């Protein structure tokens, strides 16, 4: 099986490349200068030449706060670009697996969101990603949309790596405690994507298509997440860092964040038999990877 994934540096892309090397599955990362999500003709050309069995639409505009001041760019990449990737997949009769986000929801619900819940993004980034979901579904019926949240990994920039970096010089950190979500390892996302890709190539069942939620099991606030990181760091011989739990109002940002980013993975477990590991377990795996490399 040959899988093409959009982007070259993102956490999901790098995790897919690692898993591909470990499993022998051919993963081809496609990005600039060969393909640019802001340039739809380049997308069609790139994939018609590669002829992959599956296209994973992972690249995105992810600067959540910056999107508030440049929504046009966010939409050109996350909506028009995602739609062009799905259309390119349809032209070569390949399924597309599109990575989306918890930010399509308002965060007002008291319990985890299901795929049937109404979307109501509260940021420009969230609106651009929701528009991308709609563009993907319209361009290619043979699609799987995976909403994930709070992604971290040994790669790129993410909350876990930021906490580790700050721990090198800080003994005390103020971290938001009234936003709740499901921390998710990009390596776990990659494992799930490969399993889903294998199924959709072999099985045309409509039940395998559509929108699914894919996050680590369990839940946490950002402060909970930070405390677990520092507890694991201390066990590994690192410095002791204390966490002051603060409200969202104590850490203002240009873009609003959902107070509740919890996503239910029941549908994915029911249809695909996939449920990601408990987030603390996966966090420990990623941390050990980073600490072993001295990061």
TrEMBL record:
It catalyses: dTDP-beta-L-rhamnose + NADP(+) = dTDP-4-dehydro-beta-L-rhamnose + NADPH + H(+). This is dTDP-4-dehydrorhamnose reductase. Its cofactor is Mg(2+). Binds 1 Mg(2+) ion per monomer. Belongs to the dTDP-4-dehydrorhamnose reductase family. The keyword NADP applies. Keywords: NADP, Oxidoreductase. InterPro entries: dTDP_dehydrorham_reduct, NAD(P)-bd_dom_sf, RmlD-like-bd. One of its GO terms (molecular function) is dTDP-4-dehydrorhamnose reductase activity. CDD domains: dTDP_HR_like_SDR_e. Pathway: Carbohydrate biosynthesis; dTDP-L-rhamnose biosynthesis. Its EC number is 1.1.1.133. It is an enzyme of class 1 (oxidoreductase). Catalyzes the reduction of dTDP-6-deoxy-L-lyxo-4-hexulose to yield dTDP-L-rhamnose. Residues 1-290 form the RmlD-like substrate binding domain.
